[in-house]
User: Fold these one by one.
Assistant:
Number 1:
Amino acid sequence: MAYSGVKYTNVQDAQEHRLIDMYGTELGVSIPDQDGKDLKQVPSKESNSAARSIVESPWKRRLRQYGVPGIYLALFFLYTVYVVFSLVYDPAGAIFVCLLEAVLLFIVIFKIFKVDIWKPVLSLHSKFLVKVKRPLRTKIRIIVTVVVTLALVVFLIWDIWSSVRRFIPIGGMAIFVIFLWITSTSPKKVQWMTVTWGLLLQFGMGIVILRWPVGYAACKFLGDSVSQFLSYTDAGSKFVFGDPGYTLHPVAFGVLPVVIFFSAVVSVLYYLGIMQFFIRVIAAVLRFLMQTTPIESFATAAHIFIGQVESSVVLKPFLNNLTNSELHAVLTSGFATVAGTVIAAYIEFGVPAEHVISASFMSAPAALAVAKLAFPETKSTDFKISKEMELEVGKERNIMEAVSVGAMGAVKLIANVVVNLVAFVAILAFIDATLSYFGSRVGHPEVSFDFLCSYIFMPLAFIMGIPWSNCRVVGKLIGKKIVINEFLAFADLGGYIKAGDIQGRSAVISTYILCGFGSIAAMGINLGALSAAEPRRRKDFAKLMLRAVVAGNIACFMTACVAGILYQDEPVMISITNSTNDLNSTLQNLTTNSNITDIVTSSTPVSVTVL
C-alpha cells in the first residue's frame, strides 16, 4: 500500500503515516516525502507511539460515527416528549420550551446530519434567473419598490398626521440624505434602488418592533430573556469577588464579568454553527433585496454579531481585492453596529435591552444604504459568489472547550475596554479642568466638555425627534460617543434613565443614537486591526476611515430618526424581570389583547418602568 508516494507493507503503517501527516507538527515527528526521506529530522519514539494511539479501531470509529449521533437523537426525542407534556399542561406558558425545541431541531439537522438547505434554495434561485431575463427582473424590482414605498408613505401619513413633532425626524432623515448626496464621491453613480431598499428595510423592522404589538412583544421577550440570562453572571461575580464586595465596583466586578459570560455563550453558538446560520441568512436577505455584493452583505451581517476587529480576521483573504467602495461599506457597517458581546455590557448599564438589540439590526441595512450613497461603486467587483466567504464552525472538540475558549477570548476585549476607560476618563477629567480654568477667568467656571457638547449637538438631537427639553442632555451623550467613547456614553445614559433625567421618547431615541462603534478611538482601533490583517491596503484604510466613521454615525442617527417617527408615547416599555412565566404571559396577552397597557396581568409582583 502507498501513501503520498511512500510504499508500506501493511495498512497499519499507512494509517500511521496519514495521521503523522495530519498531526506531525503537533507531535514533533518526522514526515517522509515522496522519496521516503524525512522532511523533519526530529524522530521520536514517544511521538510515534502517540500517533499510533490516534489510530482508532473499527468499533470505536463506528461508535463515534453512529453512537454519539444516536445519543443526541435519543435526548432530542426525550425533550420532544417533554415539550408535548408541557403543551398539554400549560399551553400559554410553553412558549420558551417550544422555542428551545426549534433550536434543538436546528442543531440536530445541521450539526448532526449535516444537511445543507442552501442547495435547493440556490437551485431555485438559479432557475429563476435562467427563466426570467435581466430586463424583466429589473422591471419587476422597480414595480415592487414603488409599491412598497407608496405603501410606507401612506402608512406614515396616516400614522403621524395628528402628531406634528413626529414629522421632525422625517426632516432629519432628509437632511442626512441630502448631506450624504452632496458630499458623495460620485453623486451621479448612486444606485438609488440600493439606498431605497436599505431605508425600506430599516422602516420595516422599525414598524415590526415599535408599532406591531406581537413584534414588540417578541422583541421585548427576547430583551427581557437576555437580561435575565445575563443576570446569572452575578453568581460567578459573587463567588470570585465576594458578596457584597462585587457591588462596590459595578464596572469592574459587575459589567465586565457579563462580557466574559456572554463571550463564552457566543463561543458555544459558534461551535454549534448557530451564529454562522443567522449570519448567512441575514447576508442572503441583504444581498437579494439591496443588490449589494457578497462581501458587503456578508460583512454587514457579521458585524451585527462580531466586532470589526474580529471580522478583519475573517475578511483577511479578501481585503486586498476589494474596491474602495466595498471597503468603505465594510468599514461603515462596522462603525454603525455593535458586537453582541458589547451589547451585553450596555444592557447591564440599565439601557432597555429590546431597543439595544433592535438598534443593531436596524442599523445594518441603513449602513449599507448610507455607504453606497456616500461612496457609490464605480468599478466592477471581483466577488460574484457568496460561497467565497464563510465563517468556520468552531474547532473545539466539545462544548466545554468552547466555553473555555470563549471566556479566555474575552480577556483581550476586557483589557481593551479597561485601558481605554482609564485613559479616556483621565483625559476627559483633564479637559474638563482645563476648560473650567479658562472659563473661570471670564466668570464661567461651569464650562466643561459636556457643557460644550450639550450646545453643539443640541440641533442634531432635535432633528432626530428628541424633545427640546432633553436636547442638551442628549447632546452631551452624542458628543461623548463621538469624541470619547461609546462605552462611557452608554454608562451615562443608563445613569440618566435610572435617575429619571431621561424618560420615554428621549430614552428610546437616545438608545438608537448611541448604538454604534463610531468614536474617534474606534478609528485607531480598527485602523490598527485592518492594517495588521492587510498591510498593502494601509493607505486606503487611512483615507477611508474618517468618511466611514461619519457614515456609520449617520446610519445610527437615521435609525434614531426612524424610532422618532414610529415611537408613540404610550407606556410600551415595561420591564418584567421576575421569571420566564411572566415573559410568556406577556407575549400571550399581547397576541390576544390589542390594548398594550393591559399586558401586566400576572399575579406575581413585577417591576414596571415607564421610560
Note: The CA atoms of residues 225 and 432 lie 39 Å apart.
Number 2:
Amino acid sequence: MDRSAPTVSVTQGKALGGVLPFVLGSALLGSIGIFVHMAEAGALTATWFRCAFGLLGLTAWLLWRRQLHVLRLAPSTAGWVLLASALMVLGWVLFFAAMERISAGVAVVLFHMQPMWVLVLGALCLGERPGRHRVAAVALAMLGLVLATGVLQQAASQQGAQPQYWWGVGMCLLGALLTAAVTVIARRLRAMPAGVLAWWQCAVGSAVLWLAPATQGWPAWGAAWGWLAALGLVHTAAAYALIYIGMARLPTGRIAVLQFVYPAIAIVVDWQYFGHRLGALQIAGVMVMGLAIGYAERRASGKTSPS
C-alpha cells in the first residue's frame, strides 16, 4: 500500500488552490493601466485613492466574513506586517515616480526584476532552494519580458543617454527589491487570514499619502471617481486578497514564475486597448513568457501528481 499517495494528493490540491487565485489576482492587475489612464489623476493621488478605496473594500469583506477581529496583530507578527506594508507603499511610490522619468514599458520590465529577487530572498531568508529548472524558467521568462516590452530598443535611444532615465531605472530596481521582500514576508506570514496583510498595506498607504490629493487637487466629481474606486476595490482589495491567498499556498520558486502573468497580460492590454502595435520580437517575447510559465507549471504538477 502506498501511504504517501493521500499526502501527495493533498499537496497537489493545495498547490492548485494557490495557483488559481494567484493567477486571477495577477490578471486583474494586468488591466490596471486602463483604469489609471481613464481616471486622469496624478500618480500619488491615484495611489492614495487606490489605498483608500482598497481599505474600504477589504474592511467590508472582513466585516461580511465576521473577521474584523483578525486585524488585531500579535506582537510576534505586528513588526513584520507593518514592515511589509511600508515596503509595499514605498514600492508603489517608486514605481509611479519612475514612470515620470522613463517610459511605462521600461518601468514595467525593470520593476518585474522582482521574480529574481524573490528567488534570492527566498533562499536567503526562508531556506527555500529553487531547482535548476525553476531558475531556468524564471530566466527564460525574464528574457521574454525584455523582448515583449521593447526595453532594449528604448535603452539604446537618445532617451537612454539622459540622467533622468537612469534615475528612473534605479527607482524601478529598488522598487522591485522592496516588492520581492514583501512577497517573502507574506510567505512568513502565511498563517495569517487572507486579506489582512493587504488591509494593513492600504491602511498605511492611506495614512501616509493623504496629503497628495490635498495638495495636488481632488479629481473632478464624476467618471474619474468611478475609475479610481475600481482601482481600489478591484485592483487592490480583490486582486491582492487573491494574490495573498495564492502566496500562502505556493513556494517562492513557483511564485517567481507565476509573477510574469501580470506583465504578460499588461502587455496584451496595452496592445489591445491603447493600440500599441506589437512587433515580431514583442510577440515572440509574450510567447516565450507563456512557454516558461507553462514549462514550470508542468514540472510542478508532475512532481505533485500521484504515481
Note: Residues 42-301 form one domain.
